[in-house]
User: Fold these one by one.
Assistant:
Number 1:
Amino acid sequence: MERIVRTCCLLLFLRFAAGSRIVRFDEPSVNKRILNYIIQHVNHSADPCEDFQNYASGHFADVHGDDGHFIIESNIRGQYNGKLETIFDLLKDRVFIDEYSVEEKVWRFYNTCLTAPSDTRSIKHYLELVSPGGNLTWPQFVPHGTLWAKQQFQWLETVAHLRRYGANTLISLRVEPDYFDNDKFSIFFRQPYLENMNDVDKIKDLLISSGVSSSRSAPLAKSIIKLNSDLQKLNEEKNPTFSVLTLEDIQNGTDIQLDKYLEILIGHPFESGFEMTMSDVKYFEGLSEVLENYDQEVVASYIIVQFSLFVRGLDGSDSESDSNNCVAAVAVQMELASDLLYKNYYLGQGKLEKYTKEIERIFGAVSRSFMARLEENRLNLTDDEVSYIQQKLLATTVKVGKLPNNVNHRRFVTNFYDDLNLDTDLDFASTQLKVLEHRTRRVLGQLKGPVPKGNSFYLLDEDQYDQNPEPRMQAVQTFIFVPYCLLQEPFFVPESHDVFKVSLLGFYLTRAMAIPLWTANLYYDSLSNYNEKLMNFTDNEGYINEMACLNRTTPSRDLQRRWDDVLSLQLIYNSYFGENSEFSQTQPAFTRVPLKKLFLINFAQWFVGLEDYAFFDLDDPDKMRLSEAVRNLPAFGEAFNCPKNALLNPTEKCEIW
Ligand SMILES: *[C@@H]1O[C@H](CO)[C@@H](O)[C@H](O)[C@H]1NC(C)=O
Ligand SMILES: *[C@@H]1O[C@H](CO)[C@@H](O)[C@H](O)[C@H]1NC(C)=O
Ligand SMILES: *[C@@H]1O[C@H](CO)[C@@H](O)[C@H](O)[C@H]1NC(C)=O
Ligand SMILES: *[C@@H]1O[C@H](CO)[C@@H](O)[C@H](O)[C@H]1NC(C)=O
Ligand SMILES: *[C@@H]1O[C@H](CO)[C@@H](O)[C@H](O)[C@H]1NC(C)=O
Ligand SMILES: *[C@@H]1O[C@H](CO)[C@@H](O)[C@H](O)[C@H]1NC(C)=O
């Protein structure tokens, strides 16, 4: 008996040994996989000292041409959404006992998106479901031979109705922590971002797909374009200032009945002394007058066009449905539910803790090198000022995932969606509008409570692009939020070599960490209270010189971001390779590429975007951002043996802080 047992165990042991040998030979280690991912993008014919973007990622587009990911963000998002799709597909086979469960609601939205007939996704259908207010219908829907009752049309009422789904047309409203009292939420009004409209055919097509006849669409499109340009002209201020105003002040100064707007949107009357924050006041002052100059049908059609652009900009609402789109729709529009399901499925058994611990370790290292930099005090600030900034930095914490730390996540998410009722009718527009309306109601509902802080902090805002896989800084609250989306191989793997983790996610953590030091954010102290101690910081001679230095070679569209890129690369690089580094400098066995090169090449993966990826016309393109970051890093020229005064190795570098 004993002998048999021994043989059996020996066999098992042998098989195990063979198995582990196979693993070792066939499957590259995680470091090798990451290395391969990075190195395949390198264009060895390019000169890193002249064009680092081309060198580090010149082959990115051809490697990823087939999967359609032309920037790393899209690659990360693609992986994350692929994992969510696995979960959503599993929901299909579950027998749902509880139709009120989060899973059931997610499934209904996802399944409707996948299978609803295409006529339920048309713009015309969306408009059938949302009314311009009162008993009125949209001009194109009045029966043939009758007139649209234009005298009943109230543009303000209409935009308030549409705002209930998150669409900011003509007026942009946000609910955010108050600038002066960080314990409460406040309402912010500003001019909506008005994209240039000059493509008559595009506007015509939108109108036609919303049900306007093609003969009517041509003259309407022309007037809409003119109206848009008149609205743009109302306020061409680049750096808007904001003011705190009462409802009464605003109504007296602007001729806009914002009380009515708020009541329709939020559902209860507001007192005339109610305070709000407004920027672009000039725009609001001129808005009514501009709109009065146009026929009300043009104004209504302008609103329709803006609403159509909003709808078409949402994931999932393209005229064709596919699973990528539908997963993205759920991930963005039901983000707390998606976070819960993702965490339960992929981050259980201590995985989330492991990721969090690694992120905090890197964060701690950068934070210490940042503190040391502040201590050097190159800007000759007073002790008091240095300490103010250091306290701010010390107060900054990282938060992984959107849900609050101190509650049971399932209960929290279930409560969050308890009043979202989706039926099983396969009508996509109707389902999506319910999801959006619910989400908007929750965001606006935050006005009623205090700003969640510390362990209760969670992220709920209306940024429709919030699937962007970047660590995000809540500047006033000093929280750096890291979305689950980012926790994907090859971008961040806890078990991988530090050089990968620090250069990529570490850089972005540093960028986020520096945002509280942007001049506008210096108005908030470490407790997020408004504080004028550094209100005159922009007069600091050292700071002025820094900014001028950064702007010298290639003028920037957004110098503050360039400041952040340059500073963050210097800081993260020094945390890794500087004197007090906690990271290993020995050359790893898995590659012969020197660590410093590997660090910089991996860092550069964030900047593969071509010119057209610059967000509207506000950001510098990736190539410029990358060039400016490396040309100001003293170690760059050395790492790549750049000749003196190569484009990316100038003698004069800008040192920040
Ligand atoms: C690689 O760099 C060379 C030299 O600049 C350039 O001619 C070539 O187009 C680049 N290849 C790719 C795929 O971008
Ligand atoms: C809507 O129509 C009803 C009945 O026709 C009428 O009583 C009501 O006043 C109308 N409402 C508005 C806002 O015009
Ligand atoms: C607003 O206008 C009304 C009526 O003209 C006036 O009574 C009131 O004092 C004004 N309020 C402010 C804040 O200017
Ligand atoms: C900032 O500058 C203004 C005008 O020069 C001055 O009145 C104010 O006291 C300064 N504030 C601080 C906090 O130094
Ligand atoms: C800070 O003070 C030192 C010594 O007084 C001086 O050499 C330096 O130029 C000052 N730096 C700035 C940025 O003002
Ligand atoms: C940067 O340079 C451009 C062009 O020289 C100039 O118009 C702009 O004002 C500068 N920006 C700053 C912040 O100095």
Note: Residues 48 and 55 are 5 Å apart (CA to CA).
Number 2:
Amino acid sequence: MRPFSFGGVLLATFIYIANAEFTSSHKLHKRIHVYPPYVQVKPRSYIVQFEDYLPPTHAGHFYSMPGVDVQHHYSNIFNGISVRTDCSADSTHLASVNGVKRVWPVRVYTAAGYSTGLNATYPYIHKPTGVERAIEELGLDGKGIHIGIVDTGVDYNHPELGNCWKTKGCMWQYGADLVGDKYNPYTENPIIVPKQTPMDCAGHGTHVSGIIAGQGPTVYGVARNVTLGMYRVFGCPGTDPGAGQTSDDFIIKGIEMAVADKSDIISLSLGGGSWSDGPSSIAASNAVKQGIVVVAAVGNDGTGGLHTVSAPAVGNGVLGVGSVDSWNYTVSMMMIVNEHTSQSVFITPSNTVGYPFIFETDTPVVSLVNNSDVEACVNITQDLTGIVAVFEITSNCSPLSTIASIAQAGAVGIILIYTKPGLTYPTLETGQIPLVVISSDNGQFLLDAIAQGPTTIKALKSNPTITIPADKGSGQISTFSSMGPDPNLGLSPHVMAPGGYIYSTFPLKFGSYFVLSGTSMATPYVSGAVALLKQARPNLTVKEIGEILLTTAHPIINSKTKKVEHPYKGGSGLINVYDAIKSRAKIDPPMLSLNSTTRGVITTYQDLSALGNVRWTVRTIKLTNMDVNNNMRIDIDYSISDSLSMYYKNGSIAYTPRVWTGNAITGGINNTEPVVYIPDAVKSIPSGKTGQYTVILVAPKGLAECEGWYFGGQLNFNLKWDGDLNITPYHVPFAGFNGDYTKLDVLAPLGSGFPFLGDENAKPVDPKNLVVSASNPISVYFSMALPSHLGILQLVDANNKKIGYLPQGYATDIPHTCPTCSVPNISVIVNGTVFTDTDLTNAIEAPAGKYYLHSAFLRPFGNTSNSDDYQTWDSPEFTIG
Ligand SMILES: *[C@@H]1O[C@H](CO)[C@@H](O)[C@H](O)[C@H]1NC(C)=O
Ligand SMILES: *[C@@H]1O[C@H](CO)[C@@H](O)[C@H](O)[C@H]1NC(C)=O
Ligand SMILES: *[C@@H]1O[C@H](CO)[C@@H](O)[C@H](O)[C@H]1NC(C)=O
Ligand SMILES: *[C@@H]1O[C@H](CO)[C@@H](O)[C@H](O)[C@H]1NC(C)=O
Ligand SMILES: *[C@@H]1O[C@H](CO)[C@@H](O)[C@H](O)[C@H]1NC(C)=O
Ligand SMILES: *[C@@H]1O[C@H](CO)[C@@H](O)[C@H](O)[C@H]1NC(C)=O
Ligand SMILES: *[C@@H]1O[C@H](CO)[C@@H](O)[C@H](O)[C@H]1NC(C)=O
Ligand SMILES: *[C@@H]1O[C@H](CO)[C@@H](O)[C@H](O)[C@H]1NC(C)=O
Ligand SMILES: *[C@@H]1O[C@H](CO)[C@@H](O)[C@H](O)[C@H]1NC(C)=O
Ligand SMILES: *[C@@H]1O[C@H](CO)[C@@H](O)[C@H](O)[C@H]1NC(C)=O
């Protein structure tokens, strides 16, 4: 593989925060406190504080007040009273009394610290995935199953991760460090000095490990008795580009060692590239062929829209995992105090690895919102010594440089306000200052407080981390979760698991626990779930495990549209391991990827001929009744997802896929929804037997082919076994392209500004007056709408003679690019050096003269030797001299 030099990248080194995730936005009336909803309070009970100058006898006013019952009268350490009221008196009532300074509800404390809060992370996340029932009802724990993890290593000294390494009875029985701390794939001679054990210096692998097998009481993994192996393939994070990254060579080595060490399951929370024929995909597919279940993350490029799934998750037979947001958030608290206000608000748990956001004493806080230095992206001149700074991400500057500048000005902490939905922010692995994130409404509250006068904050170490229900995102697809289809129109992701806002173990030296988000977190969840399934049903083949996990997954229903999510976003849905274990049916294939729809009239079936000239295809599905005692009855129907397009109506790329929102017209010749027809559907299958279904799928004729719609939905097999009262639903998602995929352009459309010639800062240059040379190079910049299997860039002289390939001018497996993706765009240098061979080994210098660039990118499924299968672009003319 010779990519435009993009190394393998670690997924989820970024945390993604979606819209409005923190709920408390209690603007304070001057004197009345309202606690955030998670705080338990005693009904109708209040603490009333008097102004300092008043004597305690001021309480006398309340004894005679109707509806108020004074409970306690304080005089020594507190100037005030506690009261209980009836429905005629409330806090406003109390606050209106002369001389009252503040009124609080009476808060209830749980005796044993806050363990209930922490415990709550255990039950809920495992409920919707069926893991709780598998553990509690079926007694499964993954015992005897071996999971090999290829990642950043693990802090095996963590008490919830065994606190042991390869000793007898230890959960860690195999694995190794392959690279050492200083490995940097970008350097010419990487330093490779593996250590005795794969100790984690990044945190990612320790987080992943806790999701699989955290022992509690804080983090309860999915399969707590599995045997684990860790293959560390990442060096330590650092400031050098490439530090803390890895490369295909070590990923493959890691997979290989995990196979040799007899893993039943291999868990890969990493990836890069997008093709199933890349090296890591191949390695993963080969492990599958040897009977190992390989689970891999589809990637965190969901904000780039369709076609963002990555390798090796797209490898043949690999289970590609997408992410849904957790149903609960783990948050921490901060107190905001000034003359007028005293209020607790939610903040994220600290986001800076190794720099906990803890302020035991009142610490001044200032706002850098609208600060002119920050706006201008220059070093901050204001002295921030000993101060916590608040800022918002503005679009102009890199947040990382602003953070560095704030730290340099002496600040002791940073509170970052999120203003826009779906923004990302880095987990500062090499951060130099404590940092937390606050929601926009709480952020506004903080800014308002600062505007009132000197304000301080306090964040105690003893403050509990708290679990609160997610206000919107519960169980919905994470915005960062990469979308299918894969470059061959294969259906991806396959299955979803919780990956957004996951609280798990972290290296002890970095604070022991951390919230991370990513498909990296969803992947180990599925690995653990497969361990439970394998423990319960050891004789299932890899293929059967995939079929059962996918067809028993629970479809994800979009909370706004109430429709099932498109398979390119949600795959088969959320895994449910309990239903998978209990499954008595097998469906092959478990997903239908509708590749080659043909256009024509369906004459065979009278019901469909009325549709006229349509795109359609026929598939066969086999359904096996695995119950050896009972016959099974079948009822089939189907559900439709909203169709998605990569383009707006005006033709520019829609990185958030455009959704078909027109009126649904079904059945007629203008149908805007796909039509599924299953003639002669078998209604019952005897025990142990297999039935076969012919499925005719018709693309939505009413959607314009030129707009590039991807349609989809799912077949619902509602099964009922003899002797059962309940119907068990199984689902087979289907998706396809409404048009001729092979004709699609792979380059971003006209109007995107790409391709163009630019300087090293990607500023377009005017080629007319340009003399390009080794000392005055330019670059050619590309943006890819679709992945392309081959891209060619040649220098052509004034006589239309092709002189040679540019450096990196012959490249395979080019991904879809987007402004927020791991590959934002592609640039190739033009400096006069070209290569006469496609291996790019035979360099020559182009003689001085006039030239232009000829580029050619292979269209989907194109034949490399057929020039008609390429999309081409020629640059304006320029001079080399
Ligand atoms: C926490 O969960 C564990 C395991 O389910 C349970 O035994 C324990 O009682 C729980 N603790 C609290 C305080 O709820
Ligand atoms: C792990 O297995 C041991 C031995 O079979 C058993 O005693 C223990 O309860 C199991 N732990 C869990 C969390 O299931
Ligand atoms: C920052 O500037 C904008 C635009 O002038 C204004 O709307 C906003 O209120 C300012 N915010 C603060 C905190 O000063
Ligand atoms: C900002 O501070 C950094 C670190 O001290 C320094 O390297 C850089 O030159 C400064 N930039 C400006 C514009 O002063
Ligand atoms: C977690 O979320 C679920 C679903 O929203 C909710 O029922 C549950 O109460 C939440 N748990 C806590 C501790 O807030
Ligand atoms: C779709 O068809 C093309 C061309 O026949 C083939 O190369 C590709 O692998 C097919 N994709 C799937 C998912 O079957
Ligand atoms: C798995 O297969 C073995 C050997 O064929 C058999 O003895 C065993 O009963 C099977 N186990 C289950 C759970 O079906
Ligand atoms: C195309 O339409 C989208 C959505 O309406 C808009 O955001 C975008 O700016 C338009 N692009 C052009 C080139 O007009
Ligand atoms: C289908 O759409 C065409 C064009 O909009 C319209 O002329 C025709 O009447 C429609 N036919 C039906 C059956 O709705
Ligand atoms: C042109 O750029 C390529 C790629 O960076 C480099 O290998 C080559 O040496 C450069 N040519 C000259 C003459 O500097």
Note: Confidence is low (pLDDT under 50) at residues 1-30, 35-40, 108-121, 421-426.
